[in-house]
Write a structure and sequence with these properties.
alpha+beta; Glutamine Phosphoribosylpyrophosphate, subunit 1, domain 1; Rossmann fold; 2 domains; 7-stranded antiparallel β-sheet; 6-stranded antiparallel β-sheet; elongated
């Protein structure tokens, strides 16, 4: 799948609901997944269960495409249940195929379970080989399937699903937010470092779980709190039970949630995503002032930082791009010339905003630099006198192993080019990246994982 924005991508989003009444879980999960669509557009899935029906009465549906493409009303009507979990996926581990679409669903001798996973398990292949040596057969190539099988296997020797989940979690490494559903309960787990977000909400007598608070709000629920790093939360008819069963000596929340991934209206670990990006733009204005006539941002991710930059610098903020929201996500153009044309299909410059102006252009990151170069060229053709680029993240120098699709070093333009060389390649008049030490201005004292910038991997 060709992406027009040349950005890193999150692996996926998870959403779950548990209700004691006759709530239609499938429709609630559907709307929750729509609110999380930005976290993954390759596949979507929902698994539900009627806790008042026969044990094991689980219904599932998943497929390739957007949530609205996979689930039509006739499909949702067939998914009967008052509890369930759902998933949207962008693949970073495992091929983009229906076999790897989630939730993963397993029948085994003690019952059934379904698993939805956001993140990446760095030692998944070791675990896969161990399980295959014991006779396991896997249909797909994702680490999520390995996790589901391992939990089902451990459940054979434990008194409850929580113990099986904890046993498996203690042996895995990486970043993850997991939702595991059995016929009577939902178990939520967040990795001990807090790399991947997960939160809890309440809607009447029902509980919801989601990757972001914005999805909780979207279904009409009230945000309760974030799941703590290393916490295992179980929701049953008895209510919510929580245990801090996974330990870590440090925390490392993914910085790119605040820079790019999460929705503007989300709050992660007590920090507003909007405010973090706004403060990031202000930090750029302090670090890299320039004489200019207008400040603008690359839609959508660069706009909030651009507002912060403009306010701090005292330069007017204006929208300089018109976005065509109807260009399909699978708009595939293989050649470089056609890729440039595809960018123009997605975004067009508002000539009256930039003609005869010195422009500050804000974006959240530069991976390969191709899209930004095309945008700058478009702005110059529209009459911009100068284009000064400011990036609200430090340069990408290292890959991510925790579920963010940052490519290997060979594809990162900052890996083998200086800032001035990158500036020349993208055709900007000046270029300034967020400094590592300025990231604290965005998120305060929150411990961050910045491995893709500084090579300090927390696990």
């Amino acid at each position: 799948m060709f992406e027009l924005d040349d950005k890193p991508h999150e692996e996926c989003g998870v959403f779950g609901v548990w209700s004691q009444d006759d709530m239609d879980a499938a429709h609630c999960i559907y709307y929750g997944l729509v609110a999380l669509q930005h976290r993954g557009q390759e596949s979507a899935g929902i698994v539900v269960c009627d806790t008042k029906g026969p044990i094991g009465n689980i219904c599932a549906h998943k497929g390739m495409g957007l949530v609205s493409e996979v689930f039509h009303e006739d499909v949702l009507q067939k998914l009967h249940g008052n509890i369930g979990i759902g998933h949207v996926r962008y693949s970073t581990a495992g091929a983009s195929s229906v076999e790897n679409a989630q939730p993963i669903f397993y029948n085994y001798s003690k019952g059934t379970l379904a698993l939805a996973h956001n993140g990446n398990i760095t030692n998944a292949e070791v675990l896969r080989k161990e399980l295959q040596e014991e006779g396991a057969v896997f249909n797909g190539t994702s680490d999520s399937e390995v996790l589901a099988y391992a939990i089902a296997k451990e459940r054979m020797n434990t008194s409850c699903i929580e113990d099986a989940v904890c046993k498996v979690a203690q042996g895995i490494k990486g970043g993850y937010a997991l939702l595991i559903m059995s016929p009577q309960k939902i178990v939520a787990v967040r990795d001990p470092l807090g790399l991947k977000p997960l939160c809890i909400g309440k809607m009447g007598q029902a509980y919801v779980l989601a990757s972001e608070s914005a999805a909780i709000t979207a279904v009409g629920a009230e945000f309760v709190r974030d799941v703590a790093p290393g916490e295992i939360v179980t929701i049953t008819k008895e209510g919510v039970h929580t245990e801090q069963r996974l330990k870590a000596c440090e925390r490392a929340h993914c910085v790119f949630e605040y820079i790019y991934f999460a929705r503007l209206d989300s709050k992660l670990d007590g920090i507003s995503v909007y405010e973090a990006r706004h403060r990031g733009g202000m930090a750029l204005a302090e670090r890299y002032p320039v004489e200019a006539d207008v400040v603008t941002g690359v839609p959508e991710s660069g706009l909030t930082a651009a507002v912060g930059y403009a306010e701090k610098a005292g330069i007017p903020f204006k929208l300089a791009f018109s976005k065509n929201s109807y260009v399909g996500r699978t708009f595939i153009k293989p050649t470089q010339k056609e890729r440039a044309s595809a960018v123009q299909m997605k975004l067009s410059v508002i000539e009256s905003v930039v003609r005869g102006k010195r422009v500050v252009l804000i974006d959240d990151s530069i991976v390969r630099g191709t899209t930004l170069a095309n945008l700058i060229l478009m702005m110059r053709k529209a009459g911009a006198l100068e284009v000064h680029v400011r990036i609200s993240s430090p340069p990408f120098l290292y890959p991510c192993y925790y579920g963010t699709d940052v490519p290997d070093n060979s594809q990162l333009i900052a890996n083998d080019h200086s800032v001035q060389e990158i500036c020349d390649r993208i055709g900007a008049d000046s270029l300034g990246y967020m400094m590592l030490e300025d990231l604290t201005k965005m998120t305060g004292e929150l411990p961050l994982c910045k491995a893709c910038f500084d090579n300090h991997y927390p696990v």
